[in-house]
C-alpha cells in the first residue's frame, strides 16, 4: 500500500536542485540554492478511480451476478463475482485538492 508515493519509484519531486537529501546536505548550502526548473505544487488535483463500469454502464466497486445452483434436488441462488467486461473508471478530479503524500510539511493544530 505504500507504493503509491513517488519515493517508491526512486523520485523525490520536492527535493532541491542541490541533490543529496541526506542529513549532511541539510546545512547552509542547501538553504542558499534555489531550485531549478518549474516548481512542483504540493497539491494533487486528480486521482485514479477505484470503481469500474460494466457492460450496462453501471458504476460500482464490485459486480455480482446471481446463479442458480441445484444441490440434492434443491435450487439455491448464489452470488458470483463478475471479473470480465469491466472498464476502469479512469482519473477522477478531486474537489478540493489534496496535499501530495510525499510533500514534506508538518501539520500543526492548536
From TrEMBL:
Residues 1-32 are annotated as: Disordered. InterPro entries: FUS1 (IPR029393). GO terms for cellular component: mitochondrion. Signal peptide: none annotated. One of its GO terms (biological process) is positive regulation of interleukin-10 production. PANTHER family: TUMOR SUPPRESSOR CANDIDATE 2. This is Tumor suppressor 2, mitochondrial calcium regulator.
